[in-house]
Amino acid sequence: MSANPPLAAGVDIQRLRELVSGCTACELHRGSTCAVPGEGPIPAEIMFIGEAPGFHEDRQGTPFIGAAGQFLNELLHGIGLDRSQVYITNVVKHRPPGNRDPLPDEIAACRPYLDRQIALVRPKLIVTLGRFSMARWFAGQRISQIHGQPKKADGMIVVPMYHPAAALHQGALRATIEADFLKLPRILAEMRQQLAVEEEAAKPKVEQARLF
Q: Which sign, positive or negative, has the C-alpha torsion 169, 72, 133, 127?
């Protein structure tokens, strides 16, 4: 098995979906019903990145539609958002057998797809759901120690959070996940304010450049 090469800048979202659906770069495609590329508006201010499709996602090709997805919908509604306003995807696009954890080579095989999705969606805020998506920006760190703590990376704000499914397996985590989600409006407001300041600061430079 080998990872896919980087995707060309000209690959649009429809072509990306086609490439994901036909991907054979790792073994996951063999046991899956269909690929689950992701969904949401392009561009989108917020992007959620989970780990892998589950049983229901594998049947319908849509991310986060099982029990964990229903909880995610509740979390979004709790902060005044609908899933139609955000982009949702996973680090791997086919379901691992028995919902096991994705393997390193499977994550590597899917990385070019995720890279291109990020480039197309152009999110200002990325929320990682679970430790496998978190590892891209928080390598070697433990989710139990950094959940809900934003970090600036690659020109975006990245917030690591527990996967919604964690609350289904460990009821005590539900309150933690809900509390982390309640931080998002403040993080968004601060991010927008900072962007406005940066844009305002850049204006004189642009106007001065026009004089020459």
A: negative
CA 59, CA 94: separation in Å to the nearest integer? 11
Do 112 and 6 touch, CB atoms closer than 8 A?
yes
Structure tokens, 188:
């968004």
* CATH 3.40.470.10, domain 13-211, yes or no: yes
The Cα–Cα gap between 85 and 68 comes to 18
DSSP the chain: --PPPPPPTT--HHHHHHHHHT--SSTHHHH-SS----B--SS-SEEEEES---HHHHHHS-SS-SHHHHHHHHHHHHTT--GGGSEEEESSSSPPGGGPPPPHHHHHHHHHHHHHHHHHH--SEEEEESHHHHTTTSTT--HHHHTT--EEETTEEEEEE--HHHHHH-TTHHHHHHHHHTTHHHHHHHHHHHHHHHHHHHHHHHHHHHH-
Please, how many CA atoms are within 13 Å of residue 150, restricted to the half-sphere of its CB? 19
Which amino acid, residue 71? F
- Phi first, then psi: what are they for 191, rounded to 5°? -65, -45
Q: Cα(117)–Cα(115) distance, rounded to whole angstroms?
A: 5
Q: Count other Cβ atoms within 10 Å, centred on residue 179.
A: 11
* 65-118 residue pLDDT tens: 999 999 999 999 999 999 999 999 999 999 999 999 999 999 999 999 999 999
Domain assignments of the chain as residue spans, ordered by start: 13-211
